[in-house]
Amino acid sequence: MQSLILKAEETAAYFVEVADNDNINGPKKTKSKIFTIRVPSLQELFANADQKQNDAEVELTRTLEEAKQLGEEMQRINNELKKDQRQITFEEKEKIQKAMEKFEELGSKVDDIKQKLDEVRKDLADNNLLSEETLQKYNELQELMDQFSTEEMKKAFEKMREQLDSLMRNQVQEQMEEMQFNEEMFKKSIERTVNLLKRIQIEQKMDELLKRAENLSEQLEELNKETEQSDLSNQNKKEELSKQQESLGEESENLEKEMEDLAEKMSQFDDMPKEDAEQIMQEMQEQNNKELSQKASEQIKQSQKQMAMQSQQQMMENMQMNKQNMQTMQEQHAHAKSNESNGRYDENSR
Questions:
Q1: Are 183 and 77 in contact (CB under 8 A)?
Q2: Can you name the residues that pair with 11 across neighbouring β-strands?
């Protein structure tokens, strides 16, 4: 079986053929159905991750609202438990059991979200699409979400079940107060998780735009070489190069829009380099890469090879500048966060 190296967005079709060892009548062969495999593009990989993260954020926010409602219900139950009666009633026991079931249900939801986010991290890491800083943030996220199902919380549930069987009001009330404390910690953990997830999305977007700028720069260079080596009197080749050029122009426009989206997301946090992102976005707008690409495409159609190559060269220089600016922004942000962490460590060491 030969190895096959596919590029992004390329598709391969294959089937399996087997034969028996009938040496008398001759080997009989059979074929499987045809399978296809497609390599996703850089944009598709990141878009898939974005969608899953957005879904996780929505689910976590919904879980937080349910946890708040549960907290209110637990407070009502605790108020009822302050009666003078020695034993809890059947209705009170039933309410407590339902509250415990709801608490455990919310914990299971968070476990599912944690698993999905870990799959996102693994997919991006396997494709070498994350910086060390973003990977570190993912590790922090996993550690934070591990706190949702601690041994202490499990023991608290077991102890509450034991107390419910005893029906002793004072003991059940003490355990309910401990459950309320756990529920409060659960809510705070979800809030911190949502906050950290938003930060991860921003840092991941920085990773994405840098990768896409690198990728676009490489494609522009390849197209420039191909244009130089091509015979533009060949109509088919001319149309092929023109379409490639238009596609890269659309990608440059998408990159500009994504940078605008990144700057908007950064506005949620005071310690994010929003001004740097806005500056890069402004420079990209002034470069007019979409117009440059359209110009190069028309020049190719008109067989103006040298002029088309000059337009392509200008786009390449612009994209190299964008890539450098993005890299500088990312490095400065990582350096600032590192200094901030070291400052906190020094302060705590005193």
A1: no
A2: 38
